[in-house]
Design a protein that fits this description.
CATH class of the largest domain in chain B: Mainly Alpha
Number of helices of chain B: 9
Helix content of chain B: over 70%
Shape of chain B: elongated
Radius of gyration of chain A: 32 Å
CATH superfamily of the largest domain in chain B: RNA polymerase sigma factor, region 2, helix turn helix motif
Helix content of chain A: over 70%
Radius of gyration of chain B: 19 Å
Number of helices of chain A: 4
Strand content of chain B: under 5%
Order of helices and strands of chain B: HHHHHHHHH
Distance between the termini of chain B: 51 Å
Shape of chain A: elongated
Order of helices and strands of chain A: HHHH
Oligomer: heterodimer
Strand content of chain A: under 5%
CATH topology of the largest domain in chain B: Rna Polymerase Sigma Factor, Chain: A
Distance between the termini of chain A: 52 Å
Chain lengths: 101, 188
């Protein structure tokens, strides 16, 4: 292909590309930044929610202690500590899943 | 907060959980990130661009702790955007593209005659199909230049390459397209 033929082809290509891509370019919605910030703001537990969670923990521990009343105190203590460790580990794991999105 | 540099905003956001600082960063980069996403996804998947751009910012927010400041914040942002949009596009290829009915109706109503309209639509569809076969970086450069009207310096910034390289991408892409279209019987 000669140089002038190639140049004509390139000019034609330029026009063809402009025509093929003449659709109006999309734009982001005006609330884009607000939506992103809302998605990335960590959700805080409300005061009432915190009370419910603490109440649940207290009742669960009390129930466990009552159910294990016939077992040695050491076993009860080990079980409670093991549960607490598992809860913390699970919280960390779930947190990492949330961060990965 | 508009006077703060990117680095200062990142530190405020990362070390003090300042969401206003992150909002400022989003505000600063949203247009370019959105345009880069659109340029990678292409016309067919443009309606998904906003969701993908939002996912990019969520990823950036989660990854702020890993940003060490070795490269400019913008460069890091565009790299994350490019990689994420490419991954999304790879997944989307298995899905039928979204073509809104009103777009088709608009196209059918503007041309002077049905034959010429159909011919032009076929040529344009073929051009876009050929664009899809080009390497991703060429596709993105073409769409940014021809569709989104970005300047050379903007494209260079978003693709993290020198301006001369962008010009070379565009030139090579046009050359490849010219050959591909000739093989399909279309002479530009």
């Amino acid at each position: 292909m000669r140089d002038d033929e190639l140049k004509d082809g390139m000019d034609g290509m330029d026009a063809l590309l402009r025509a093929a891509m003449s659709d109006p370019a999309p734009v982001a919605s005006p609330t884009f930044a607000q939506d992103v910030v809302r998605h990335t703001t960590p959700r805080r537990v409300t005061g009432a929610g915190r009370i419910v969670l603490y109440a649940y923990a207290v009742v669960a521990v009390a129930l466990c202690v009552w159910l294990m009343r016939d077992l040695p105190v050491a076993v009860t203590a080990v079980a409670l500590v093991a549960n607490a460790v598992m809860a913390v580990a699970l919280r960390g794991y779930v947190g990492s899943l949330v961060r990965q999105g | 907060m508009t006077d703060f540099t990117d680095d200062q905003l990142v530190i405020r956001c990362r070390d003090h959980q300042d969401q206003d600082a992150f909002g400022q960063l989003v505000h600063r980069y949203q247009d370019r990130v959105f345009r880069l996403v659109v340029s990678i996804l292409g016309q067919e998947f443009a309606p998904d661009a906003e969701d993908v751009a939002q996912e990019v910012f969520v990823r950036i927010h989660h990854a702020l702790t890993t940003w060490r400041g070795d490269a400019a914040f913008g460069t890091w942002v565009y790299r994350i955007t490019f990689n994420h949009a490419l991954n999304v596009k790879a997944r989307m290829r298995y899905r039928a593209p979204h073509v809104p009915a009103d777009v088709l109706a608009t196209r059918a109503g503007d041309a002077p005659s049905a034959d010429r309209q159909l011919d032009a639509a076929r040529r344009h569809a073929l051009v876009l199909a050929c664009v899809h076969e080009l390497p991703e970086i060429y596709q993105s450069a073409l769409r940014l230049h021809y569709w989104l009207g970005a300047s050379m310096s903007e494209i260079a910034l978003m693709l993290d390459t020198p301006e001369n390289t962008v010009k070379s991408y565009l030139h090579r892409a046009r050359k490849l397209l010219h050959v591909m279209l000739q093989q399909r019987g279309i002479h530009a």
